[in-house]
């Protein structure tokens, strides 16, 4: 047989009952959900910064990072809303490699999906309850939504998932801001069609049920750069790119036009230190053009305690990425204060 069935998975209800978010934590999340929503809809003119490790591979350094982030967040709160990245699933282009803590809680160990679900929930819960910061995660597998729907304030749909019908329809049932990345080809039409689909109601099969959704008016775009047919990274964060996206938004039946600029991935050519320069350009363009300021609601930054990245081994550098390279904490802290200086006005 093609499949070997190993372990029955607990239901979302069972996992949430065993590892519940406290009532106080639920209030924190609800408040932050609304703050993010108000930025996307334009009710709040603060700037959204989604920042953190490429993958949340270990609880201790991730939570140390979030503790530091929470202190900065308090200082810039009048101008910037900071949402930590706690990315617990990692897409792999070839299917090989570390797939995130939700699949492999020990990067050196075997996959363990049940232990991964527990590790994923515990990390998100501690971020909320210990540091007051509900987080963003990528919804690589739509069926995982039930396990984290009470924890996330922001959801990203990746470049390889955005063309998938199941992802588009699932986002139409989410009740939090959800960013749809441009595909690796860079096609804006594909990305905007995904937003359109996510904003409208649907009737489909989800997690073994026939379901209906109302549509998610907080679905929006994320620009992450692209890869040309020759394999070269091409950027889409420049002034002309944003102007073109604004025109295309105007031609579609989409509410709350908004975009987030992903400063890494193909926009930086995975040259992680370029993220600082890219963010500076984004902030400059918002000051130069009122239209761009209305459309560009925030940035995504890959950052961790220690800059760069490393291979998975028995001798890990504490707080350094084991997937894509990130900027380090000192650079991150400086950049966050620079963003706050330029965010409003």
| Total beta strands | 14
Low-confidence stretches are none
Q: CATH homologous superfamily, by name?
A: Aldolase class I
Instruction: Describe the main β-sheet briefly.
Output: 8 strands, parallel
What is the CA-atom radius of gyration, in angstroms?
19 Å
Corresponding CATH architecture: Alpha-Beta Barrel
Offer a quick outline of the entry.
Helices cover 39% and strands 17% of the residues. By secondary structure, the chain is an alpha/beta fold.
SSE layout:
Layout: H1 12-18, H2 23-41, E1 47-52, H3 59-76, E2 80-84, H4 113-131, E3 135-138, H5 145-148, E4 152-157, H6 165-171, E5 177-181, H7 188-199, E6 203-206, E7 209-212, E8 219-223, E9 226-227, E10 233-234, H8 239-250, E11 259-262, H9 274-288, H10 290-295, E12 296-302, E13 306-309, E14 320-321, H11 329-343
Parallel strand pairs: 1-2, 1-12, 3-4, 4-5, 5-8, 8-11, 11-12, 13-14
Antiparallel strand pairs: 6-7, 9-10
Structure characterization notes:
There is one protein chain. The strands form four sheets. Strands 2-1-12-11-8-5-4-3 form an eight-stranded parallel sheet. The protein has a two-stranded antiparallel ribbon with strand order 6-7. It has a two-stranded antiparallel sheet with strand order 9-10. The longest helix is centred in the first third of the chain and has 19 residues, at 23-41. The chain is α/β, with parallel strands linked by helices. The protein has a single domain (12-309), classed as TIM Barrel, CATH 3.20.20. The protein has helices at 12-18, 23-41, 59-76, 113-131, 145-148, 165-171, 188-199, 239-250, 274-288, 290-295, 329-343; strands at 47-52, 80-84, 135-138, 152-157, 177-181, 203-206, 209-212, 219-223, 226-227, 233-234, 259-262, 296-302, 306-309, 320-321. The chain has eleven helices and 14 strands. The protein is globular, with a radius of gyration of 19 Å.
């Amino acid at each position: 047989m093609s499949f070997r069935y190993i372990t029955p998975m607990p239901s979302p209800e069972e996992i949430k009952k065993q590892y519940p978010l406290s009532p106080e934590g639920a209030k924190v999340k609800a408040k932050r959900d609304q703050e993010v929503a108000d930025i996307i809809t334009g009710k709040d003119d603060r700037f959204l910064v989604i920042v953190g490790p490429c993958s949340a591979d270990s609880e201790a350094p991730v939570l140390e990072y979030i503790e530091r982030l929470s202190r900065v967040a308090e200082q810039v709160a009048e101008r910037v809303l900071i949402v930590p990245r706690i990315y617990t699933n990692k897409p792999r282009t070839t299917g090989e490699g570390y797939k995130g803590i939700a699949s492999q809680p020990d990067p050196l160990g075997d996959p363990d999906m049940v232990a991964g679900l527990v590790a994923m929930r515990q990390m998100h819960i501690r971020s909320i309850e210990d540091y007051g910061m509900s987080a963003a995660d990528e919804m690589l597998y739509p069926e995982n939504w039930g396990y984290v729907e009470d924890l996330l304030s922001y959801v990203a749909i990746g470049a390889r998932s955005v063309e998938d019908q199941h992802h588009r329809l699932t986002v139409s049932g989410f009740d939090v801001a959800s960013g749809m990345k441009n595909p690796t080809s860079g096609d804006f039409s594909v990305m905007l069609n995904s937003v359109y689909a996510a904003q409208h109601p649907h009737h489909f099969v989800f997690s073994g049920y026939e379901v209906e959704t109302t549509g998610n008016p907080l679905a929006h775009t994320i620009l992450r750069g692209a890869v040309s047919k020759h394999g070269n990274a091409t950027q889409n964060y420049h002034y002309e790119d944003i102007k073109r996206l604004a025109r295309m938004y105007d031609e579609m039946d989409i509410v709350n036009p908004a975009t987030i600029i992903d400063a890494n991935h193909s926009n930086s050519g995975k040259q992680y230190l370029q993220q600082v320069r890219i963010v500076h350009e984004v902030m400059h363009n918002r000051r130069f053009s009122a239209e761009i300021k209305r459309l560009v609601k925030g940035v995504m930054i890959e950052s961790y305690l220690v800059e760069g990245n490393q291979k998975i081994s028995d001798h890990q550098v504490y707080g350094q990425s084991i997937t894509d390279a990130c900027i380090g904490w000192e650079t991150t802290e400086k950049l966050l204060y620079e963003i706050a200086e330029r965010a409003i006005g």
